[in-house]
Every structure is written in structure tokens, then in C-alpha cells.
Design goal:
five-stranded mixed beta sheet
């Protein structure tokens, strides 16, 4: 697996962010046992976990790159693809689905001119589906980053996205 990571496209990792990550890693007593915490910190700093960063983490804590990749690919929270500045998550839970989440999803795709799990050309938005956000009384609901928007429909999508564009 380490060889596979090395063959993938190389990304230049910003030194200032690597320095912050190194400081965090060095502060931990059980670095291997804290792998998930290290990955959370790395994704917070870099926005995603490209193969070069996974390899860097593996080498920093002395474990095989395949172990890091296994954790990154297993947990849906982690992403190996650069995301937009804002993530729009469409709730597809039962209540939202019954109340029109599919139409909301299609309207967002049309408005943003992207598909699911894609990022807009300006790197402002990434669109994704999630199972349930726990806001069933607001169905259909979407989340932009950590903010929930309820009773979504084709008519109010533009207002929500525009508020993040600064328009």
C-alpha cells in the first residue's frame, strides 16, 4: 500500500501547516494509539487527507502507510479529496426524503452546477448526501458546514447559497 501511495499524484504540503501538525504529534504520548485524533487534526489543518499527507503521518509516527490509509478509507468523516470552503449536506433520512429531499438535492445540483460529492469550480461548495442530521421536524433539511436549514425547497435554495457567496 505504501508503494501505491507513493505512485499517486504528489501534493505540495504547506510547511506552516506541517509544523503545526508536527507540534501536535510530538505532544502525544501514544502517537499510534492516537492515530484518529492525528488524522482529525490533519484534516482540520489541511482540509483533506491527500496521499502525501497520509504518508507523512505514517512516517512521523512510525507505522505503515497502509494502516493510515485503512483508517482514512474506513471512516466516512475523512476525505482524500479536496473539498470546497463550505460543505452542503443534503439530509436523505426518512422524514426528509418523504418531504422532498430528492427534489432539494436535484435543485442544489442544478444551482451549483455540480453532482454529488463534487466541488464547484470556484472551490466554494462541496455537495454531499448524508443519512440523517436529526432535524426531522425541519424536513427537508440541509446543513451548510454546521448550520442547519429547514423546510428547504427549490425556492429558498438560492437564498441559502447566496448568503455564503457574499452576494
Amino acid at each position: 500500500m505504501e508503494k501505491d501511495l507513493l505512485l499517486m499524484e504528489s501534493v505540495t504540503l504547506p510547511e506552516d501547516k506541517l509544523s503545526l501538525l508536527d507540534t501536535y504529534i510530538r505532544s502525544l504520548d501514544d502517537q499510534e494509539g492516537m492515530l484518529i485524533h492525528i488524522l482529525h487534526r490533519a484534516q482540520h489543518l489541511f482540509g483533506y487527507l491527500p496521499p502525501d499527507l497520509q504518508l507523512y503521518i505514517a512516517r512521523s509516527i512510525g507505522i505503515p502507510a497502509s494502516k493510515v490509509y485503512g483508517v482514512v478509507s474506513f471512516y466516512s468523516y475523512f476525505t482524500q479529496v479536496k473539498r470546497g470552503e463550505h460543505t452542503i449536506s443534503v439530509c436523505m433520512g426518512t422524514a426528509c426524503f418523504v418531504k422532498g429531499a430528492e427534489q432539494v438535492k436535484e435543485a442544489l445540483k442544478k444551482e451549483l452546477k455540480i453532482g454529488m460529492d463534487e466541488t464547484t469550480i470556484d472551490e466554494l461548495f462541496t455537495l454531499k448526501e448524508i443519512r440523517c442530521i436529526g432535524a426531522c421536524g425541519l424536513a427537508p433539511a440541509v446543513m451548510v458546514d454546521d448550520k442547519v436549514y429547514g423546510h428547504m425547497n427549490e425556492g429558498n435554495i438560492k437564498a441559502v447559497t447566496s448568503s455564503y457567496k457574499g452576494v
